[in-house]
Automatic annotation (TrEMBL):
<dbReference type="InterPro" id="IPR050378">
    <property type="entry name" value="Metallo-dep_Hydrolases_sf"/>
</dbReference>
<dbReference type="InterPro" id="IPR032466">
    <property type="entry name" value="Metal_Hydrolase"/>
</dbReference>
<feature type="domain" description="Amidohydrolase 3">
    <location>
        <begin position="371"/>
        <end position="466"/>
    </location>
</feature>
<keyword id="KW-0378">Hydrolase</keyword>
<dbReference type="InterPro" id="IPR023100">
    <property type="entry name" value="D-aminoacylase_insert_dom_sf"/>
</dbReference>
<feature type="domain" description="Amidohydrolase 3">
    <location>
        <begin position="44"/>
        <end position="264"/>
    </location>
</feature>
<protein>
    <submittedName>
        <fullName>D-aminoacylase</fullName>
        <ecNumber>3.5.1.-</ecNumber>
    </submittedName>
</protein>
<dbReference type="InterPro" id="IPR013108">
    <property type="entry name" value="Amidohydro_3"/>
</dbReference>
<dbReference type="Pfam" id="PF07969">
    <property type="entry name" value="Amidohydro_3"/>
</dbReference>
<dbReference type="InterPro" id="IPR011059">
    <property type="entry name" value="Metal-dep_hydrolase_composite"/>
</dbReference>
<dbReference type="GO" id="GO:0016787">
    <property type="term" value="F:hydrolase activity"/>
</dbReference>
């Protein structure tokens, strides 16, 4: 028979209801029944031994595809050991162009997890405007971007993503983004955004994404919502009040969040004017946005020995002030990049958030958990989902297990427009996670980010077991998920 019975499991259906001890039957790639079930003749049976069985976790903001990493690691262990069964790519305004080729490649050579993607605004800008993209677009250029966007959406992309704090999106006017969002809305797509500012201009950035939702009617999601400046700390309730008011107005605004005080990006993102010689501005950054001791390099091509060192530590080595060191490191990385055909020269992690705000965002009923992580760099790529379950559910008791699982499953599915995943019910796809709530734990740290989590016992993707006893089964059951229509 092609059916499997998982019995003696503490089942959480993903909707936020209480766990129930019972069984679940899978036929082919779908769940066919849930409850008090007995084995059928010849059926494969799996004793869950009282562990928790939930829908597979959906990572709504993932970079596990960066630089072909998932293609080279089809077993997706850093994802499966977190319980992730679906990853959403094309984030922060960047996607693989043409998207159809990227998705078709995974159709032909699938990984162990499901994947899907957005179309990136910055990619559209780069393609249409070329080397002259660091300025507002003309009407003709916006129309060319709309045409390319339509072509890319035909591949089944979920919608449009923006990275408005990054080059070249930072140079776009709001009208340009609204025009592209409106085109996306006409095709039934969605909008997800690394907003224009997560620190000093945060309130304007929130107004912008709300306005995009208001004027286009498109569902809008704030990527990795955060308050990344001292002056904003502990204002999460005020921000959520603003978002709830927008929802009351009829704007479908949601957010995802990761459970770390550190973000990851480039040094340049801290300087809106991109001026490495503005020492006054750099001094403000180190005082108000992220301290020099909290800026840790995960990549620095001009001198790889600086990896895992902070700006404070590098300043001591060099014998220069922290402000001057920051400036010099920027200019040296820029020179290296220019000498190497524009290759990425540096990446940092910056400590800018507070635990209280993270907890408040996790508790919002319209937020879901995301990693914003990849195979390399920030520990969130290896530890996000277990960290929520270990730190915020078990240890700090900020969230109930039921609520946390809903934020990883049904909410995430709703925010991405998935109708057949994210819940345990007959007819839903059999993406499932079996884990020990007492033993689940993340192990990746700020200076040792590539350590696998533990406590995830088994994972099923489309009805096939891809992780067993925490080990890959070398079954690659993932699928490319495309927007209907």
């Amino acid at each position: 028979m092609s059916s499997t019975l998982i019995h003696n499991a503490l089942i959480l259906d993903g909707n936020g209801g209480e766990a129930k001890l019972g069984a679940l039957r899978i036929e082919d790639d779908a769940i066919v029944s849930v409850g008090d079930l007995s084995p059928l003749d010849g059926e494969q049976t799996i004793d869950a031994n009282g562990l928790v069985l939930t829908p597979g976790f959906i990572d709504t903001h993932s970079h596990h595809d960066d630089k072909g990493a998932l293609r080279e690691n089809l077993d997706a262990l850093p994802m499966l050991t977190q319980g992730i069964t679906t990853a959403v790519f094309g984030q922060d305004g960047d996607h693989q162009l043409p998207l159809a080729d990227f998705l078709n490649d995974f159709d032909n050579n699938p990984p162990a997890v499901n994947i899907t993607a957005y179309v990136g605004h910055n990619t559209l800008r780069d393609h249409v405007m070329g080397d002259d993209a660091n300025r507002p677009a003309t009407t003709t250029e916006i129309e060319a971007m709309q045409a390319l966007l339509l072509s890319e959406l035909e591949s089944g992309a979920l919608g449009l993503s923006t990275g408005l704090e990054y080059v070249p999106g930072i140079y776009s006017h709001r009208d340009e983004v609204i025009s592209l969002a409106a085109t996306t809305a006409e095709q039934g797509g969605r909008y997800i955004s690394h907003v224009r500012s997560e620190d000093r201009f945060l309130w304007d950035a929130m107004e912008e994404i709300i306005d995009i939702g208001r004027k286009t009617g498109i569902p809008v999601q704030i990527s990795h919502i955060k308050l990344a400046a001292k002056s904003l700390w502990n204002q999460a309730p005020e921000l959520l009040e603003k978002l709830n008011a927008a929802r009351a107005e009829g704007i479908d605004v949601t957010a995802d969040v990761y459970p770390y005080e550190y973000w990851a990006s480039t040094m340049w993102v801290l300087l809106p004017d991109r001026n490495a010689d503005d020492l006054e501005e750099i001094a403000f950054v180190l005082d108000q946005l992220t301290p020099a001791s909290g800026i840790i390099f995960t990549k620095y091509e001009p001198n790889p020995e600086y990896i895992n060192l902070s700006v404070t530590e590098i300043a001591k080595i060099r014998g220069t002030s922290e402000v001057q060191t920051f400036s010099d490191l920027l200019k040296e990385s820029e020179a290296w990049s220019k000498a190497n055909d524009g290759a990425e020269a540096e990446m940092i992690m910056g400590r800018s958030m507070t635990e209280d705000d993270i907890e408040t965002f996790l508790q919002w009923e319209h937020s879901n958990v995301c990693s914003d992580g990849g195979f390399y760099g920030h520990p969130r790529g290896h530890g996000t989902f277990p960290r929520v379950l270990a730190r915020y559910v078990r240890d700090r008791q900020v969230l109930s297990l039921e609520t946390a699982v809903a934020a990883m499953t049904s909410r995430a599915a709703d925010h991405m427009g998935f109708t057949d995943r994210g819940r345990i019910a007959p007819g839903m796809k059999a993406d499932l996670v079996l884990f020990d709530p007492k033993g689940i734990q993340d192990h990746a740290g700020i200076r040792d980010g590539q350590v696998l989590s533990t406590g995830i016992h088994s994972v099923w993707v489309n009805g096939q077991r891809v992780l067993k006893d925490g080990e890959s089964t070398q079954v690659f059951a993932g699928r490319v998920l495309r927007r209907a229509g």
